[in-house]
Design brief:
With 181 residues, this protein is α+β, with helices and mostly antiparallel strands. It is built from five helices and nine strands; from the N terminus they run E-E-E-E-E-H-E-H-H-H-E-E-E-H.
Length: 181
């Protein structure tokens, strides 16, 4: 990727505004790497080392974000589909969980993007590659910063953080350790 990809952000203080619409969410947006999920019409789709959580009511996510003051970036995804749940479900359900070296939380999101906006979306290996592709396809709307401190914004914009494959895999391995019994 050449240069930084920036998203102009509106600041918000309450995650309940995301109960309608569709968003790609960078959860812990200022961490390398952030965790990724999709929110659509009051439900969330998430793939983690713990497993697949498809169509979970957003109240659970909202409460966690507020309780832990999680820094999130919500990016409106103009999919043009009212029935997006019927597309999200099979793509998220084909992955049982994140597997180090094999799958990441980006995979189901990338798969949905490829189905909706073109096969080239499958070439993205990281969110900082996928978002510029979605921007080029003119399917990103407004972005909203929640709990992101001003020192992480430049003139009201969030510069997407980049990271290496090694940093990504180290983060997955660390998360897996936390949840392995």
């Amino acid at each position: 990727m050449s240069g930084k990809f920036s998203l102009a952000c509106n600041s918000v203080s309450d995650p309940r505004i995301f109960h309608s619409g569709t968003y790609i969410v960078l959860f812990h947006a200022t961490r390398i790497p952030p965790h990724l999920l999709v929110v659509h019409e009051g439900r969330s789709w998430d793939l983690s080392v713990k497993g697949n959580a498809s169509g979970v009511p957003i109240e659970t996510l909202s409460a966690f974000i507020e309780r832990k003051n999680v820094q999130c970036l919500f990016i409106e995804w103009k999919t043009g589909r009212n029935d997006l749940s019927s597309i999200l479900n099979p793509h998220f359900c084909k992955y049982e969980k994140i597997i180090p070296g094999k799958t990441t939380c980006l995979f189901p999101i990338r798969d949905v993007a490829a189905e909706l906006h073109g096969a080239e979306m499958k070439n993205a290996r990281y969110i900082f590659e996928l978002l510029p592709m979605l921007h080029e396809a003119n399917v990103l709307g407004d972005s909203f910063a929640l709990h992101i401190p001003p020192d992480h914004l430049t003139d009201g914009a969030f510069d997407l953080l980049t990271y290496s494959e090694e940093e990504l895999q180290a983060s997955i391995a660390e998360a897996k350790k936390k949840y392995t019994v």
